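sorry for the late reply, my laptop died twice this morning and i had to redo everyting from scratch. anyway the thing you sent over, i finally got around to it. pasting the sequence first so we're on the same page, its 294 residues, then the predicted structure underneath. double check i copied it right bc i was rushing
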Amino acid sequence: MIDFRPPVIEDRQWVEPLLRKSKKYGCEYSFGDVFIWQSVYDIRIAFHKGFFVSLNGGEYQSYCCPVGEGDVEEVIRDLIEDANERGIKFKMFGLVSDCVVQIDKLFPGRFEFEPIRDSFDYIYSTRDLIELSGKKYHPKRNHIAAFMRNNDWSYEPITKDNIAECALMNAEWERRNREKDPDSIDEELIAINQSFENFFELGFVGGLLRVSGEVVAFTFGEEMNEDMFCTHVEKAYADVRGAYPMINREFAARELSGYKYVNREDDTGSEGLRRAKLSYYPEILLEKFVARLK
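ok and here's the structure:
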């Protein structure tokens, strides 16, 4: 049985180089994402024969596609054996198309692959997020103009001096919105609190908006590789018109201009979130699959 264990901050030193080198664009392949959601999804990790591997526990019971250097076929066979020893059905999650091709070639006919639309990642051109040019972004520009016209506002990067204000603003946001979906809100609060407690050790980068001195929006994420930044969280008060598009644009313009792409993760099947993410016209809608052993 593979020695899976919960991730700790020190694991970033060996996990991040493997993930960065793999150039996988799915949000599951960022160390920060694994770390902050570990309590919610019972995520455990291991370094096995040169590869980063992970196992989601509880009701999720699935493995990630191994990332590293060496004999990936042998590692997948070891994961299958690990599942057998644990008495669970073997499946892998978050597989992008090149993983599907690779696994089907290594194990012809042994797996069935199912696209999971709710887990597709929305990947945007950073230039589009900054410039918002063209007719299709006219509504975004209108909301931003209204925000700038109606508010005494300012932008700041998240630092040790203001991160506590972001945590307080998030707690208030969660309180206002909890009735919509209590379970999801509570799970998200766990992940965001984990983020704030380990923000700088995880290498996160973030920004916030103030209106008349009060924090009304914040966002943060991490670099996946030299081309891709992954935005893990974005929060704004819905009653402050334009706060969401404003923090999106300002953060991209001030912190992310050196990246070609921004991965803003999936929509979790939420219709409202799906409409919001589609309204920014992703350059790539990254298909992700689950692989099940037949």
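The chain has a mean pLDDT of 96.
thats about all i looked at so far, will dig more tmrw
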